[in-house]
Amino acid sequence: MSSTGVPSEVVVVGIGADGWASLPASSRSLVLEAPVLWGGSRHLSLVPDAPRQVRVPWPSPLSAGLPSLLSEYAGRPVVALASGDPLVSGIASTLLDLGAPVRVVPAVSSVALARARMGWSAESCVVVTVVGRSLSRVLRECAPGRRVLVLSSDASTPGALAELLTSSGWGASRLTVLGDLGSSSESSISAVASSWSESSPALNVIAVEVVGNGLASWAPGLPDDAFENDGQLTKRDLRASALARLMPAPGQLLWDVGAGAGSVGIEWMRAHPTCRTIAIESDPGRAARIARNASALGVPDLEVVEGRAPSALAGLEAPDAIFIGGGATREGVLDTCLAALKAEGRLVVHGVTLETETLLAKAYAGHGGELNRTRVEIADEIGNLTGWRPSRSIAQWVWISGD
Average pLDDT over the chain, rounded to whole? Predict the structure, then answer.
């Protein structure tokens, strides 16, 4: 959305759990003198009456209703209330993404308060929000000794997180639920995830001290058995080779075409929290499996498009990189992918059949790039002795847009 059709300015004022009285005088004046005041029902109830002030609660669902709210008050100044620091997984970030001119007056964030209570420096921990998002996002951040602050959705989040950690190999982790931070009713409850049975307040932040032996690596080439699959899987050594050439970078988008089990797209997203993947898969069972694998491996925001390339690629956001693991010989697939890449975008295509190898040889002759063939051999039993068991050879073509 552009800045047309939005308020002239939205001043987002942070307010702590201790309420109205703790706001600085300058913030109280901003709020009371605003002609229009937005906020959650709880926040609006904290503000004393102000004559002729229009008070509007946030729409529900928020993301769907915000564009209409912005348009309704186009050209007018607005003040909005938010919890703590509105730019820490807060409404100010959402408004900025929608093109609203935002000015932020922050209070102390729940993250800062949680770090203070735990004695954790900003450098020693990571923050994950599960407000309106999948809880499995926490799994990407888990590793022995890791400290994770989880911004909780509600009172049910700690128990659900304890179950998730336990089922994922992190049941020995210690959870500290910090409730109503900054208020007179502030609380702290700690227990090990595998034995969690505590009740929690609705407003809470969860401090996780990670202990266990769950899947922790961010390096490309996770074990093959980390992925539920029906055999349609890019094996770990070839997956690592593909990802090294796809070069995941923060904020970039991958198309995983003919995604199979989704392994390449999933590992692309595990490389950085802002990496994104659209997995294109025509088989409904495999498409559902990709979503399950993505959730189990901590990247539930991976987008699955059920359909057959090239038609399923129409209208998708232009990618920074494309991996074709299956279907390269289908008419139009390779040409569509070559045309779709952004400048300096990376394309990696794997082929196991003679037909695909022939196609890739022609592509290499016409476009350049890198063409290689890889075969992995694994030590295996031969009677009472040991020998090499070869896998199928894989042809790999790599091309960078603009080269």
Answer: 95
